[in-house]
Amino acid sequence: MPPKTTTRRVFLALLIVSLLAAWAWWAMRAKPVSVAVTAVEKGTVEKTVANTRAGTVKACRRAKLSPSAGGQIAALPVNEGEFVKRGQLLLELWNKDLTAQLALTRQEATSAAATARAKCIEADQARREANRQQKLLGRQLVSEELLDRAVSAANAGDAACEAAQATAAVSEARVGVTEATLEKTRLIAPFDGVVAEINGELNEYVTPSPIGIPTPPAIDLIANRCFYLTAPIDEVDVAGITVGQTARVTLDAFGERRFQGRVRRIADYVLDVEKQARTVDVEVEFVDPADIEQLLAGYSADVEIILDVRNDTLRIPTESVVEGNKVYVFVLESDLIEQRQVETGTANWDHTEIVDGLSEGEFVVTSVDREGLADGVDARREADSKQ
Predict the structure, then answer these.
(1) Looking at the structure, do residues 107 and 251 belong to the same domain, yes or no?
(2) How far is CA 57 from CA 3, 75, 347, in A?
(3) What is the pLDDT of residue 116?
(4) CATH no. for residue 195?
(5) Alpha carbon 86 to chain centroid, angstroms
(6) Residue 30 near residue 331, CB atoms below 8 Å
(7) Which of 21, 75, 306, 368 could be a cystine partner for 92, CB 3.0 to 4.6 Å?
Protein backbone atom coordinates (compact mmCIF):
# COMPACT_ATOMS: atom_id res chain seq x y z
CA MET A 1 0.00 0.00 0.00
CA PRO A 2 1.45 3.41 -0.95
CA PRO A 3 2.72 5.52 1.96
CA LYS A 4 0.43 8.43 1.06
CA THR A 5 -2.67 6.25 1.31
CA THR A 6 -1.62 4.98 4.74
CA THR A 7 -0.97 8.48 6.01
CA ARG A 8 -4.34 9.65 4.77
CA ARG A 9 -6.12 6.82 6.53
CA VAL A 10 -4.33 7.50 9.79
CA PHE A 11 -5.23 11.18 9.55
CA LEU A 12 -8.88 10.38 8.91
CA ALA A 13 -8.92 7.99 11.84
CA LEU A 14 -7.40 10.58 14.15
CA LEU A 15 -9.88 13.17 12.91
CA ILE A 16 -12.80 10.85 13.55
CA VAL A 17 -11.53 10.06 17.05
CA SER A 18 -11.10 13.77 17.81
CA LEU A 19 -14.61 14.56 16.61
CA LEU A 20 -16.04 11.73 18.68
CA ALA A 21 -14.14 12.93 21.73
CA ALA A 22 -15.32 16.49 21.18
CA TRP A 23 -18.92 15.32 20.81
CA ALA A 24 -18.67 13.19 23.93
CA TRP A 25 -17.27 16.15 25.90
CA TRP A 26 -20.01 18.45 24.66
CA ALA A 27 -22.71 15.89 25.43
CA MET A 28 -21.38 15.09 28.89
CA ARG A 29 -20.54 18.60 30.07
CA ALA A 30 -22.75 20.22 32.73
CA LYS A 31 -25.55 22.26 31.24
CA PRO A 32 -25.98 25.84 32.49
CA VAL A 33 -28.44 26.24 35.38
CA SER A 34 -31.48 28.31 34.41
CA VAL A 35 -32.00 30.95 37.10
CA ALA A 36 -34.31 33.87 37.81
CA VAL A 37 -32.42 37.03 38.69
CA THR A 38 -33.19 40.56 39.77
CA ALA A 39 -31.06 43.68 39.88
CA VAL A 40 -29.79 45.24 43.09
CA GLU A 41 -31.62 48.56 43.34
CA LYS A 42 -32.22 51.47 45.64
CA GLY A 43 -35.54 51.85 47.37
CA THR A 44 -37.37 51.78 50.68
CA VAL A 45 -37.11 48.95 53.17
CA GLU A 46 -39.40 48.72 56.17
CA LYS A 47 -39.06 46.59 59.26
CA THR A 48 -42.49 45.33 60.20
CA VAL A 49 -44.26 42.87 62.48
CA ALA A 50 -47.55 41.20 61.69
CA ASN A 51 -50.29 39.40 63.57
CA THR A 52 -49.96 35.67 64.16
CA ARG A 53 -53.68 34.98 63.70
CA ALA A 54 -56.44 36.90 62.00
CA GLY A 55 -57.45 40.11 63.72
CA THR A 56 -60.98 41.47 64.02
CA VAL A 57 -62.57 44.82 63.25
CA LYS A 58 -64.52 46.01 66.27
CA ALA A 59 -66.83 48.91 66.95
CA CYS A 60 -65.59 51.45 69.48
CA ARG A 61 -68.90 51.01 71.29
CA ARG A 62 -71.12 47.96 71.19
CA ALA A 63 -73.87 47.13 73.66
CA LYS A 64 -75.74 43.85 73.95
CA LEU A 65 -78.85 45.05 75.71
CA SER A 66 -81.51 43.19 77.67
CA PRO A 67 -84.13 44.49 80.12
CA SER A 68 -83.20 44.00 83.75
CA ALA A 69 -86.70 42.74 84.49
CA GLY A 70 -88.65 39.92 82.91
CA GLY A 71 -91.93 40.37 81.12
CA GLN A 72 -93.91 40.40 77.90
CA ILE A 73 -92.72 42.55 75.00
CA ALA A 74 -95.35 45.24 74.48
CA ALA A 75 -93.47 47.59 72.11
CA LEU A 76 -90.65 47.02 69.65
CA PRO A 77 -90.42 50.25 67.65
CA VAL A 78 -87.11 49.50 65.85
CA ASN A 79 -85.98 47.06 63.18
CA GLU A 80 -82.68 45.33 62.47
CA GLY A 81 -80.38 47.57 60.45
CA GLU A 82 -82.12 50.75 61.61
CA PHE A 83 -80.05 53.71 62.78
CA VAL A 84 -81.16 55.01 66.17
CA LYS A 85 -80.25 58.06 68.24
CA ARG A 86 -79.12 58.17 71.83
CA GLY A 87 -82.12 58.13 74.19
CA GLN A 88 -84.45 56.50 71.66
CA LEU A 89 -86.78 53.73 72.89
CA LEU A 90 -85.71 50.31 71.59
CA LEU A 91 -87.99 47.91 73.48
CA GLU A 92 -90.66 48.11 76.16
CA LEU A 93 -92.23 45.39 78.30
CA TRP A 94 -95.85 45.39 79.45
CA ASN A 95 -95.92 47.87 82.35
CA LYS A 96 -99.44 49.26 82.70
CA ASP A 97 -99.45 48.34 86.38
CA LEU A 98 -96.26 50.29 86.97
CA THR A 99 -97.54 53.20 84.90
CA ALA A 100 -100.66 53.35 87.08
CA GLN A 101 -98.55 53.06 90.20
CA LEU A 102 -96.39 55.93 89.01
CA ALA A 103 -99.47 58.11 88.40
CA LEU A 104 -100.69 57.29 91.90
CA THR A 105 -97.40 58.10 93.60
CA ARG A 106 -97.16 61.36 91.69
CA GLN A 107 -100.62 62.36 92.89
CA GLU A 108 -99.69 61.40 96.43
CA ALA A 109 -96.52 63.49 96.13
CA THR A 110 -98.57 66.43 94.88
CA SER A 111 -101.02 66.06 97.77
CA ALA A 112 -98.21 65.78 100.31
CA ALA A 113 -96.54 68.88 98.90
CA ALA A 114 -99.80 70.84 99.18
CA THR A 115 -100.31 69.65 102.75
CA ALA A 116 -96.76 70.71 103.60
CA ARG A 117 -97.38 74.18 102.17
CA ALA A 118 -100.56 74.52 104.22
CA LYS A 119 -98.84 73.41 107.42
CA CYS A 120 -95.98 75.82 106.82
CA ILE A 121 -98.41 78.70 106.20
CA GLU A 122 -100.12 77.92 109.52
CA ALA A 123 -96.74 77.73 111.24
CA ASP A 124 -95.78 81.11 109.81
CA GLN A 125 -99.04 82.62 111.04
CA ALA A 126 -98.49 81.16 114.55
CA ARG A 127 -94.97 82.58 114.63
CA ARG A 128 -96.20 86.06 113.73
CA GLU A 129 -98.86 85.81 116.49
CA ALA A 130 -96.20 84.82 119.03
CA ASN A 131 -94.14 87.86 118.02
CA ARG A 132 -97.14 90.16 118.51
CA GLN A 133 -97.82 88.69 121.96
CA GLN A 134 -94.18 89.30 122.85
CA LYS A 135 -94.53 92.98 121.98
CA LEU A 136 -97.80 93.29 123.91
CA LEU A 137 -96.21 91.69 126.97
CA GLY A 138 -93.51 94.35 126.87
CA ARG A 139 -96.27 96.97 127.13
CA GLN A 140 -97.96 94.87 129.87
CA LEU A 141 -101.10 94.44 127.76
CA VAL A 142 -101.15 90.64 127.95
CA SER A 143 -100.19 88.07 130.50
CA GLU A 144 -97.20 85.78 130.32
CA GLU A 145 -99.54 82.81 130.08
CA LEU A 146 -100.96 84.05 126.78
CA LEU A 147 -97.43 84.62 125.49
CA ASP A 148 -96.41 81.07 126.47
CA ARG A 149 -99.39 79.67 124.64
CA ALA A 150 -98.60 81.68 121.53
CA VAL A 151 -94.95 80.62 121.56
CA SER A 152 -95.91 76.95 122.07
CA ALA A 153 -98.36 77.18 119.18
CA ALA A 154 -95.66 78.72 116.98
CA ASN A 155 -93.16 75.96 117.87
CA ALA A 156 -95.76 73.29 117.24
CA GLY A 157 -96.53 74.89 113.89
CA ASP A 158 -92.84 74.83 112.92
CA ALA A 159 -92.62 71.13 113.83
CA ALA A 160 -95.79 70.37 111.86
CA CYS A 161 -94.33 72.22 108.86
CA GLU A 162 -91.11 70.20 109.05
CA ALA A 163 -93.05 66.93 109.39
CA ALA A 164 -95.24 67.76 106.40
CA GLN A 165 -92.19 68.66 104.32
CA ALA A 166 -90.55 65.36 105.28
CA THR A 167 -93.71 63.50 104.28
CA ALA A 168 -93.71 65.32 100.94
CA ALA A 169 -90.05 64.37 100.44
CA VAL A 170 -90.89 60.72 101.14
CA SER A 171 -93.69 60.86 98.59
CA GLU A 172 -91.37 62.42 96.05
CA ALA A 173 -88.77 59.71 96.71
CA ARG A 174 -91.47 57.07 96.23
CA VAL A 175 -92.08 58.58 92.79
CA GLY A 176 -88.38 58.08 92.01
CA VAL A 177 -88.55 54.45 93.13
CA THR A 178 -91.55 53.80 90.92
CA GLU A 179 -89.87 55.53 87.98
CA ALA A 180 -86.77 53.37 88.46
CA THR A 181 -88.90 50.23 88.54
CA LEU A 182 -90.70 51.36 85.39
CA GLU A 183 -87.34 52.09 83.75
CA LYS A 184 -86.41 48.41 84.12
CA THR A 185 -89.12 47.57 81.58
CA ARG A 186 -87.63 49.80 78.88
CA LEU A 187 -84.51 49.58 76.75
CA ILE A 188 -83.15 53.00 75.81
CA ALA A 189 -80.33 53.49 73.27
CA PRO A 190 -77.21 54.52 75.26
CA PHE A 191 -75.55 55.96 72.14
CA ASP A 192 -76.12 56.59 68.42
CA GLY A 193 -75.80 53.38 66.45
CA VAL A 194 -77.27 50.65 64.28
CA VAL A 195 -79.50 47.87 65.54
CA ALA A 196 -77.48 44.80 64.55
CA GLU A 197 -79.75 42.10 65.96
CA ILE A 198 -83.10 41.70 67.71
CA ASN A 199 -83.92 38.56 69.68
CA GLY A 200 -87.61 38.67 70.39
CA GLU A 201 -91.00 39.51 68.93
CA LEU A 202 -94.07 41.35 70.13
CA ASN A 203 -95.92 39.50 72.93
CA GLU A 204 -93.01 37.16 73.56
CA TYR A 205 -91.66 36.85 77.08
CA VAL A 206 -88.11 37.77 77.96
CA THR A 207 -86.29 36.99 81.17
CA PRO A 208 -83.01 38.28 82.58
CA SER A 209 -79.97 36.00 82.26
CA PRO A 210 -79.41 33.80 85.31
CA ILE A 211 -76.07 34.38 87.02
CA GLY A 212 -73.33 32.57 85.15
CA ILE A 213 -75.60 31.54 82.25
CA PRO A 214 -75.31 33.94 79.29
CA THR A 215 -78.35 34.28 77.05
CA PRO A 216 -78.73 36.13 73.73
CA PRO A 217 -79.31 39.87 74.18
CA ALA A 218 -82.67 41.31 73.29
CA ILE A 219 -80.99 43.97 71.14
CA ASP A 220 -77.43 44.23 69.87
CA LEU A 221 -76.53 47.88 69.25
CA ILE A 222 -73.36 48.89 67.38
CA ALA A 223 -71.91 52.39 67.03
CA ASN A 224 -71.04 52.39 63.31
CA ARG A 225 -69.16 55.68 63.24
CA CYS A 226 -66.04 54.44 65.00
CA PHE A 227 -64.08 51.23 64.37
CA TYR A 228 -60.73 49.83 65.37
CA LEU A 229 -58.79 46.63 64.80
CA THR A 230 -57.54 44.25 67.44
CA ALA A 231 -54.91 41.70 66.43
CA PRO A 232 -52.75 39.17 68.31
CA ILE A 233 -48.99 39.83 68.01
CA ASP A 234 -46.43 37.24 69.04
CA GLU A 235 -44.87 38.01 72.42
CA VAL A 236 -41.42 37.96 70.77
CA ASP A 237 -42.34 40.82 68.41
CA VAL A 238 -44.40 43.05 70.67
CA ALA A 239 -41.43 44.57 72.51
CA GLY A 240 -40.65 46.85 69.55
CA ILE A 241 -44.20 48.20 69.23
CA THR A 242 -45.13 51.58 70.68
CA VAL A 243 -48.33 53.61 70.69
CA GLY A 244 -48.54 55.91 67.68
CA GLN A 245 -46.60 53.74 65.22
CA THR A 246 -47.90 53.57 61.65
CA ALA A 247 -49.64 50.41 60.53
CA ARG A 248 -51.09 48.99 57.34
CA VAL A 249 -54.31 47.01 57.50
CA THR A 250 -55.67 44.56 54.93
CA LEU A 251 -59.18 43.16 55.09
CA ASP A 252 -60.25 39.96 53.40
CA ALA A 253 -63.40 41.70 52.23
CA PHE A 254 -61.37 44.30 50.27
CA GLY A 255 -58.72 42.08 48.65
CA GLU A 256 -55.32 43.72 48.25
CA ARG A 257 -56.47 47.19 49.31
CA ARG A 258 -54.53 48.61 52.24
CA PHE A 259 -55.95 50.86 54.93
CA GLN A 260 -53.77 53.26 56.89
CA GLY A 261 -53.79 52.82 60.64
CA ARG A 262 -52.06 53.82 63.85
CA VAL A 263 -51.34 51.83 67.02
CA ARG A 264 -53.61 53.15 69.77
CA ARG A 265 -53.20 50.58 72.56
CA ILE A 266 -51.04 47.63 73.58
CA ALA A 267 -52.55 45.16 76.03
CA ASP A 268 -51.01 45.03 79.51
CA TYR A 269 -50.86 41.24 79.65
CA VAL A 270 -49.95 38.18 77.56
CA LEU A 271 -52.65 35.80 76.39
CA ASP A 272 -51.78 32.23 77.30
CA VAL A 273 -54.24 30.07 75.38
CA GLU A 274 -53.79 26.30 75.35
CA LYS A 275 -52.27 24.95 72.10
CA GLN A 276 -51.58 28.47 70.81
CA ALA A 277 -48.53 30.70 70.82
CA ARG A 278 -48.50 33.35 73.52
CA THR A 279 -49.60 36.66 72.11
CA VAL A 280 -50.37 40.25 73.08
CA ASP A 281 -53.44 42.01 71.69
CA VAL A 282 -52.61 45.25 69.89
CA GLU A 283 -55.31 47.75 68.92
CA VAL A 284 -54.98 49.78 65.72
CA GLU A 285 -57.23 52.72 64.85
CA PHE A 286 -58.08 53.72 61.28
CA VAL A 287 -56.59 57.06 60.21
CA ASP A 288 -58.82 58.04 57.28
CA PRO A 289 -62.44 58.79 58.31
CA ALA A 290 -63.57 57.88 54.79
CA ASP A 291 -62.40 54.30 55.36
CA ILE A 292 -64.59 53.91 58.42
CA GLU A 293 -67.75 54.45 56.37
CA GLN A 294 -67.03 51.22 54.47
CA LEU A 295 -66.30 49.02 57.47
CA LEU A 296 -68.44 46.52 59.29
CA ALA A 297 -67.87 45.14 62.77
CA GLY A 298 -66.57 41.59 62.64
CA TYR A 299 -64.47 41.83 59.46
CA SER A 300 -61.34 39.66 59.63
CA ALA A 301 -58.14 41.62 59.12
CA ASP A 302 -54.36 41.47 59.07
CA VAL A 303 -52.03 44.23 60.19
CA GLU A 304 -48.43 45.19 59.50
CA ILE A 305 -46.94 47.52 62.10
CA ILE A 306 -43.98 49.51 60.79
CA LEU A 307 -41.13 49.55 63.30
CA ASP A 308 -38.40 51.13 61.15
CA VAL A 309 -38.02 52.66 57.67
CA ARG A 310 -34.89 52.92 55.49
CA ASN A 311 -35.31 55.21 52.49
CA ASP A 312 -33.13 55.26 49.33
CA THR A 313 -31.07 52.27 50.42
CA LEU A 314 -29.72 49.27 48.50
CA ARG A 315 -32.18 46.41 48.62
CA ILE A 316 -32.76 42.93 47.20
CA PRO A 317 -35.68 40.50 47.43
CA THR A 318 -35.63 38.74 50.78
CA GLU A 319 -36.12 35.40 49.02
CA SER A 320 -32.63 35.72 47.48
CA VAL A 321 -30.89 35.68 50.90
CA VAL A 322 -29.73 32.23 52.06
CA GLU A 323 -28.31 31.21 55.41
CA GLY A 324 -29.01 34.69 56.72
CA ASN A 325 -26.11 36.52 55.01
CA LYS A 326 -25.30 34.89 51.65
CA VAL A 327 -26.51 35.49 48.11
CA TYR A 328 -25.85 34.03 44.67
CA VAL A 329 -24.63 36.70 42.24
CA PHE A 330 -25.07 36.21 38.49
CA VAL A 331 -21.92 37.58 36.78
CA LEU A 332 -22.94 38.93 33.39
CA GLU A 333 -19.43 38.93 31.90
CA SER A 334 -18.88 35.20 32.43
CA ASP A 335 -22.40 33.80 32.94
CA LEU A 336 -21.14 32.26 36.16
CA ILE A 337 -22.68 32.06 39.60
CA GLU A 338 -20.71 33.58 42.46
CA GLN A 339 -21.73 32.96 46.04
CA ARG A 340 -21.07 36.05 48.11
CA GLN A 341 -21.38 36.96 51.77
CA VAL A 342 -23.19 40.24 52.46
CA GLU A 343 -24.04 42.42 55.41
CA THR A 344 -27.77 42.98 55.77
CA GLY A 345 -29.77 45.61 57.63
CA THR A 346 -33.50 46.19 57.94
CA ALA A 347 -35.61 43.45 56.38
CA ASN A 348 -39.20 42.35 55.84
CA TRP A 349 -40.98 39.65 53.87
CA ASP A 350 -40.44 41.51 50.59
CA HIS A 351 -37.06 43.25 50.73
CA THR A 352 -33.79 43.13 52.65
CA GLU A 353 -31.45 46.09 53.04
CA ILE A 354 -27.85 45.53 51.86
CA VAL A 355 -25.28 47.38 53.95
CA ASP A 356 -22.17 45.88 52.31
CA GLY A 357 -21.22 43.22 49.76
CA LEU A 358 -23.25 44.26 46.69
CA SER A 359 -23.38 47.21 44.32
CA GLU A 360 -26.31 48.78 42.55
CA GLY A 361 -26.94 47.15 39.18
CA GLU A 362 -25.53 43.71 40.05
CA PHE A 363 -27.83 40.73 39.64
CA VAL A 364 -28.76 38.32 42.42
CA VAL A 365 -30.47 34.97 41.97
CA THR A 366 -34.02 34.77 43.35
CA SER A 367 -34.61 31.12 42.42
CA VAL A 368 -32.28 29.83 45.13
CA ASP A 369 -33.97 26.43 45.26
CA ARG A 370 -32.89 25.41 41.73
CA GLU A 371 -31.11 22.08 41.49
CA GLY A 372 -27.43 22.42 40.69
CA LEU A 373 -27.13 26.02 41.88
CA ALA A 374 -23.70 26.47 43.47
CA ASP A 375 -20.69 28.74 43.52
CA GLY A 376 -18.84 28.75 40.17
CA VAL A 377 -21.43 26.95 37.99
CA ASP A 378 -22.49 28.13 34.56
CA ALA A 379 -25.88 29.77 34.52
CA ARG A 380 -28.40 31.20 32.16
CA ARG A 381 -30.95 33.88 32.97
CA GLU A 382 -34.52 32.81 32.46
CA ALA A 383 -35.14 36.06 30.65
CA ASP A 384 -32.52 35.03 28.07
CA SER A 385 -34.00 31.55 27.64
CA LYS A 386 -37.38 33.07 26.81
CA GLN A 387 -35.99 35.22 24.05
Answers:
(1) no
(2) 98, 32, 28
(3) 87
(4) 2.40.50.100
(5) 23
(6) no
(7) 75
Q: Tell me the pLDDT tens digit for each residue of 44-65.
A: 998 888 888 889 999 999 999 9
CB 329 within 8 A of CB 337: yes
Contact at 8 Å (CB) between 368 and 316? no
Output 214 or 267, whichever has higher pLDDT.
267
pLDDT band at 386 (very low <50, low <70, confident <90, very high): very low
Where do the H-state alpha helices sit in 95-219?
96-138, 144-183
DSSP letter (8 states) at residue 207: -
| pLDDT tens digits, one per residue of 91-124 | 999 999 999 999 999 999 999 999 989 889 888 8
Report yes or no: 195 and 260 within 8 Å, Cβ to Cβ. Answer: no
The percentage of residues in the chain with a pLDDT greater than 90, rounded to a whole number, is 43
Quick: pLDDT tens for 373-382: 888 888 888 8
CB 359 within 8 A of CB 370: no
Q: Are 247 and 315 within one domain?
A: yes
What does the DSSP 8-state code read for residue 269? S
Bridge-based pairing of strands 33-35 and 379-381 is parallel
pLDDT the model gives residue 344: 92
Quote the domain boundaries for residue 369. 46-58+226-385
Domain assignment present for 13: no
Q: What's the confidence (pLDDT) of residue 387?
A: 33
The residue among 368, 317, 363, 371 whose CA lies nearest residue 344 is 317
| 248-255: long-range contacts, CB 8 A cutoff, minimum separation 24 | 248/303, 248/304, 248/306, 249/284, 249/286, 249/301, 249/302, 249/303, 249/304, 250/301, 250/302, 250/303, 251/57, 251/295, 251/299, 251/300, 251/301, 252/299, 252/300, 252/301, 253/296, 253/299, 254/294
